[in-house]
Specification:
Blueprint (H helix, E strand, L loop, with lengths): L22 H20 L1 H6 L16 H21 L4 H27 L6 H14 L7 H11 L9 H10 L12 H24 L6 H22 L11 H10 L6 H29 L7 H9 L5 H21 L11 E4 L2 H6 L4 E3 L12 E4 L13 H11 L4 H8 L15 H15 L5 H25 L5 H10 L5 H14 L5 H21 L5 H10 L5 H9 L3 H7 L1
Parallel strand pairs: 1-3
Antiparallel strand pairs: 2-3
Helix pairs in contact: 1-3, 1-4, 3-4, 4-10, 5-6, 5-8, 7-9, 8-9, 11-18, 13-15, 15-17, 15-18, 17-21, 18-21, 19-20, 21-23
């Protein structure tokens, strides 16, 4: 077994004057080699997605040792980082070591809970599709064809030393199917994976065709045959062991919340979210009245105002140009309003393929490769318009909200900061967790909302209402306190969603990523509380733009560490006040 001291290479991320890279960042990145080594061993495609050309051909191998082998490697790395932290005197480096220990601890706890409770099921077709999507759309390497051919042959087991990925997945499952103490995946989730399989395979073929990657026909045919056999295996041997309802075992659900950066018990998270929900709902009714009056509509409850705004649909042909204009408008707004320093470059905006829309039926931002600045600022991907049941991105008013969240001042701006040379790997591309990532995007959109048109303010507050609702519905569903029907009815009657949007929201909670949706509310509330704490201490000296720039300069630190770091300068003042 490799030692945790293995020295994974760190690809250069410097983009100009080397003096822009502080010495402590270089020192911290040396410690981050340990995390890069874990990625190279267990998630090589993710390392390649960061722009590491040496991993471009590498593929996931599902270890015969199962989750236990990976867990052991994580625990060794955590212990080594702990030793280094004890001997580290530099404040920022020590903070980064704490951050890496925290992040790996969350991952290890989730691995442990899943290994103790769940059958080791993975969606092989999804792994392969996402691998090629990343490789062939990121812009690195400049010529991805050789790496794509090698990945394809390795996934199919056509290179010496490689076992077909589908067979690895079957062997892992077979070794565990006889264990009665392990719970199977939710039947509906497996059925959706089986249904999406042909779409994703077709999507891989389309990617090869678009990039004109030849010489893949025989290997692709063999991979398709293997995946067809694998899907037959899942129908025959896994479906009978699937659980019939979605709730995760309590240990796994708690670990998922923590893995997303939520360090509150589910009950306390729910209590805070319910209080925020009621307060936001009252404000939303007031804003709905203003929107109706401004548009000469009858005075109506806020769900009726939502329905009226949903009718103002953009055509598919106009969607991209409209979103590009909206990006320009918001860039100008954050500059003139002094909200935050503007980004140095704009992301691309494109429509999703049919396969991407099947996998992610909602707008999302794709990171650029962190180690290859030449690849630009990432991209906003808009799904097929048919996947917008509630007018959440394909209307003129909703585009303000979507661009504010996904582009500027949200994710695109945030991620552009993470890739600057004065941000360490631990706080940047290796610090990924949803509470910090989504927390900023929601916080920034909500803080900017008063400066947006009235309809956009209304939709921003409605989105915040929905996130508060999801933050208490998510744990309630997985703890068995609510049924799918009850949650869907609540979303329609109390949150104002139409039936299609309510269904998609419940799907995200129960099937797509349990616990994920609650991170939006939690991260937003933590950052809003931090801003209040800093503003109270500074009083009239508080500068919004400076605060937001400083917040982004600390990257994706776990939020408890971020709060401690930003409030440290006020510690003597706080002690005197006490």
């Amino acid at each position: 077994m490799p030692e945790v001291h293995d020295r994974a290479p760190i690809p250069s991320t410097e983009t100009g004057d080397a003096s822009a890279r502080p010495a402590w960042v270089t020192q911290s990145d040396e410690h981050a080699r340990l995390m890069l080594a874990l990625m190279r061993r267990f998630e090589p495609e993710s390392l390649a997605a960061l722009g590491d050309a040496t991993a471009a051909s590498d593929v996931t191998r599902l270890s015969p040792g199962g989750p236990e082998e990976r867990l052991d490697a994580y625990e060794q790395t955590i212990r080594e980082l702990g030793k280094r932290r004890e001997g580290e005197a530099q404040t920022e480096v020590r903070l980064d070591l704490e951050a890496m220990i925290t992040l790996l601890g969350w991952q290890a706890d989730l691995l442990r809970a899943e290994a103790e409770c769940l059958l080791p099921y993975v969606s092989v077709t999804r792994i392969v599709f996402e691998s090629f999507l990343s490789l062939l759309t990121a812009g690195t390497p400049a010529d991805p064809a050789p790496a794509a051919r090698r990945r394809l042959r390795r996934y199919a087991g056509l290179e010496a030393g490689y076992v077909p990925l589908a067979r690895q997945a079957q062997d892992l499952l077979r070794a565990s199917l006889s264990r009665g103490d392990l719970v199977g995946p939710w039947r509906q989730a497996v059925l959706e994976d089986l249904e999406n399989g042909p779409r994703l395979l077709a999507g891989i073929g389309e990617l090869f065709e678009e990039r004109r990657i030849d010489g893949t026909a025989s290997a692709f045919a063999e991979l398709r045959r293997q995946l067809d056999e694998h899907h037959d295996f899942l129908r025959r041997e896994l479906l009978p062991r699937c659980r019939q309802d979605f709730p995760l075992p309590p240990e796994v659900y708690a670990a998922r919340l923590a893995h997303h950066g939520i360090d509150l018990p589910a009950a306390e998270l729910g209590r805070r979210a319910e209080a925020a929900f009621e307060e936001r709902r009252c404000r939303l009714e007031e804003l709905a009245s203003r929107v109706a009056r401004d548009r000469d509509w009858p005075r109506e409850p806020f769900p009726d105002v939502l329905r009226r705004l949903e009718r103002d649909r953009l055509t598919t042909g106009s969607l991209l140009d409209h979103y590009r204009r909206r990006c320009q408008q918001l860039e100008q707004l954050i500059e003139t309003s002094g909200f935050v320093s503007p980004p140095s470059q704009r992301p691309r905006i494109r429509l999703a393929s049919a396969a991407e829309s099947a996998l992610l039926p909602f707008p999302h931002f794709r990171w650029p490769p962190a180690f290859d600045p030449s690849c630009g600022a990432g991209e906003l991907v808009l799904p097929a318009r048919a996947k917008d049941p509630g007018g959440e991105f394909a209307t003129s008013a909703s585009s303000w909200v979507m661009v504010a969240h996904e582009v500027v001042p949200g994710h695109a701006l945030q991620i552009s900061r993470l890739l600057e040379p004065d941000i360490s790997l631990a706080r940047g591309s290796l610090g990924f967790h949803l509470a910090a990532l989504e927390g900023w995007a929601v916080y920034a959109g909500s803080e900017l909302a008063p400066e947006l048109p009235l309809e956009a303010r209304f939709l921003t507050l409605h989105r915040d209402l929905r996130r508060a609702a999801v933050a208490f519905l998510d744990p309630a569903l997985h703890q068995g306190r609510l049924s799918v029907e009850q949650a869907s009815r609540f979303l329609q009657t109390r949150v104002g969603l139409n039936e299609g949007s309510a269904r998609q929201t419940v799907w995200r909670i129960t099937t797509w990523s349990p616990g994920q949706a609650a991170s939006y509310f939690f991260g937003h509330s933590q950052l809003a509380a931090l801003r209040t704490a800093v503003e109270c201490r500074l009083g009239a000296a508080f500068d919004r733009r400076r605060f937001h720039d400083r917040l982004l300069a600390h990257g994706l630190l776990p939020l408890t560490l971020l709060r401690r770091r930003l409030l440290e300068p006020f510690a003597p003042q706080d002690r005197r006040a006490a």
